[in-house]
Amino acid sequence: MCSSVVGLTPNLEASMNTRSPSRVRRGTLAAGVILTAVAVPAALTMPAYAGPQAAHDDHGTSRAALTRAASGTDRLLEPRSRFTMAADGSSGTRPDGAGVPNIDSVKSTIRTYYAADATGIADKTTSPYISELGGVLGKQATQLKGLYNQAKRSGKKPAIVLDADDTTLWTYDMEDNAMHFNFDPVLQDVWVQGQKFPATPGMVQFVAAAQKAGFAIFGLTGRNDDQKVATVANLGKVGYTAFNTDNFFTKWTGKGDSQQPSYITCATAKCTTVEYKAGTRKHIESLGYDIALNVGDQWSDLQGGYADHTLKLPNPTYYLPSPNLAGVEEPKLAPRTRFTMKPDGSSGKTVGGEGIPNIDSVKSTIRTYYGADATGIANKTSSPYITELGRLTGAITPALRASCAVASRLGVKPAIVLDADDTTLWTYDMEDNAMHFNFDPVLQDAWVQGQKFPATPGMVALVNAAQKSGCTLIGLTGRNDDQKAATIGNLAKVGYTGFTNPNYYTKWTGKGDSQQPSYITCAAAKCTTIEYKSQTRAHVQTKAGGGYTILANFGDQFSDLKGGHAIVPIKLPNPTYYLP
Fold this sequence. Notes:
This is Acid phosphatase. InterPro entries: Acid_phosphat_B-like, HAD-like_sf, HAD_sf. By secondary structure, this protein is α/β, with parallel strands linked by helices. 40% of the residues lie in helices and 11% in strands. The protein folds into 2 domains: 2-78 and 372-571, 3-Layer(aba) Sandwich (Rossmann fold); 137-344, HAD superfamily/HAD-like (Rossmann fold). It contains 20 helices and 12 strands. The strands form 3 sheets. The protein has a 5-stranded parallel beta sheet with strand order 4-3-2-5-6, sandwiched between helices.
C-alpha cells in the first residue's frame, strides 16, 4: 500500500518545480496524492469505506460538482444490514466492528416490533409482536386436540407447562420503560409484588382453550418462592383461571423453609436454569402426568427434555442461557445466528422476534469486541477493537503523512477534520459502565467537564503525525459550546498536540452568544447532524473559514461523514450507539 505513495511522490515533486502552478493545478495535484495515498489503503481496510471526492470550489471545482460527488459518496456511506452473531457473544472476537449489530439500531428494531412509543411503552392492541403471537398461538391451538390424544395414549394425564415472564405475563414495559433493558432485581421485585404485568397477548385465550381440551396446567418460572403468591395473584388478575399455589412452581431462595427440593439434583451447588426446570418437569411427570407441551420464551425454558413437544415464543428483549443437561443434545433448541437489520429499526415490522438480534447477546458481543470486563470497563491494551483500529491507523498513517507533506509544499493548506467521541476520545467506559448503553446527557456532561476520556486507540499517533507533516487539525463535534474548552483540554491531556480553539467547532446552545452561525442554514428549526457538520466543513474550505483543503474526514458515525466537503471520508468502528 505504501508503494503507491513512493511511486507517486517523484511525479509530484517534478510538478512542483514547474513555474507558477495555478491554484487549480495545485488542488488537482493534492487531490491526486490523497486519492492514491489514502483512499487505496483505507478501502482495503474498511468495508464501509467510501470512495474519494473532488477538491473544493476554492481550488477550481464548482459547488455543483462537489454536490454531485458528495451525493455519489453518501450512497456508499451506509451501515451494514446483515449480521452473523452467536448468542453467547463470541462473535465479538472478530476485529470487525461493522459486523457487530449496533445497539441503538437493535433497540429501535425491538421498539418497532413491539410498537413501543418513545418512552418504551408497548402498544397493547396492535404490533408486529402481537400479530406474530396470534399466528403462533392460533396454529398451536388447532393442534391441542391431537396433542391431548397423543399424551392420553401414554396412560398418564395430559399436561401443559408454561413459563411466566413473557410467556403468560408480559414484561416489556418493565424491561424498556422502567429498566431501559438493564435488568434490576430490586425494581423487578417491585413490579412482581405490585402485580403490574399484563397478560402476554393471546395467552389467556390459549390457556383457556387448553383447559377446555382437558389438559392439566402447570406454571414453572425462575421467579422465587417469595414472589409466588404475587405471581399467582397477577395471573388471576389478568384473566387466567388455571393457576394456583399448588400447580405453580417457583425457585427456592435458600432461606427458611424455601430450600432446594429433594427431587432436583444439580452438578454444582448452584443449579442451572435447565437443571431446575427439567428436574421440575421430571417431577411433574412422576406425579402421573405426561407433559404434552412445554411453552417458554427462553431456550433454557425448553431444554432438558421431559416434554413431548416445545413451543418457543419470541422475545428479543433479554437472553437467559443455560448449559443443557449432560449428554442431552437438542440442536433445534438454539437461537438464530444470522440476522437482517436495517439501522433505522424498520426491520422490526417484518423479520419476526427470532429475526431480531437479542439485546443481551448484542451487549455480550460488544463487550467481547472491546475486551470489556463484567463491569463494562474496556481493556485498554488488547481487544479486537484495538486490533482493528491498529490495522486501520497503521495502514493510513504513512499515506496520510505523505499526503499532508506534499499538499503542504504545494501551498494548498491541507487539513484533516476529526470528530471527537470515539474518533479522537474514547467513550466506551462511559457508555457501558456508567450509562449501561442508555444515554444520559447530564452524566455525559460530567464526563466531558471532568475530561475523563482516554484517547481512541491509535489515533493520537495518527493525528499528531498528520499535524507534524503539515496538515492543520480541524475538530468538528456534536458536543456543544459549553463543552468546548473541556474537550480541547481533554485532547491535550491524552497527548494530542495540534487542536486549537479557532479550529475546533462545537455546536451552539442557543443561549447568549452561542447561536447558530450565519454560514449554516437548515431545513427545519433544529439542524440535523449532517447539515451542521457538512456546512461547517464547507465553511472551513472558504476564505472566512481558513481556506483549507480537507484531505480526510474522520468519524465513527456515518452522519459525521455524509454531505461531502472532504476528499476522503474515513469511518471508524463503533457499535455502541447510532446517530443518524
